[in-house]
Specification:
The chain is mostly beta strands and 118 residues long. It has strands spanning 2-7, 10-13, 18-26, 33-39, 46-52, 58-60, 68-73, 78-83, 92-99, 105-108, 112-117. The chain starts with a strand and ends with a strand.
Length: 118
């Protein structure tokens, strides 16, 4: 199993920046991809972006492309989500998740709250 712990959430004004981190522990050798998701009250969970653990290639949702950047540090088993030019609609609980090869996202963190005020 893989355990995930997110950190870095908080309150920020529109146009500001926040940096979220996700620390992985346990069977990290099994990680193929790490993703970030978010869920706002009353809404479905939404994909934000992901990174391939070994190669580092990333994909992003259109809603965050050009504003958010995902990076990983394999030595520290952490993934970072740098969020710039934040908008009130980015307000949500942000969760990181891990997928193994040929598997969906199986392991999830507890989430961290991001609130963007207008």
């Amino acid at each position: 199993q893989v355990q995930l712990v997110e950190s870095g959430g908080g309150l920020v004004q529109a146009g500001g920046s926040l940096r979220l981190s996700c620390a992985a522990s346990g069977r990290t050798v099994s990680i193929y991809r790490m993703g970030w998701f978010r869920q706002a009250p009353g809404k479905e969970r939404e994909f934000v972006g992901s990174v391939i653990w070994s190669g580092g290639s990333t994909v992003y949702a259109d809603s965050v492309k050009g504003r958010f950047t995902i990076s990983r540090d394999n030595a520290k088993n952490t993934v970072t989500l740098q969020m710039n030019s934040l908008k009130p609609e980015d307000t949500a609980v942000y969760l990181c998740a891990v997928a193994r090869v040929f598997q969906g996202y199986e392991y999830w963190g507890q989430g961290t709250q991001v609130t963007v005020s207008s």
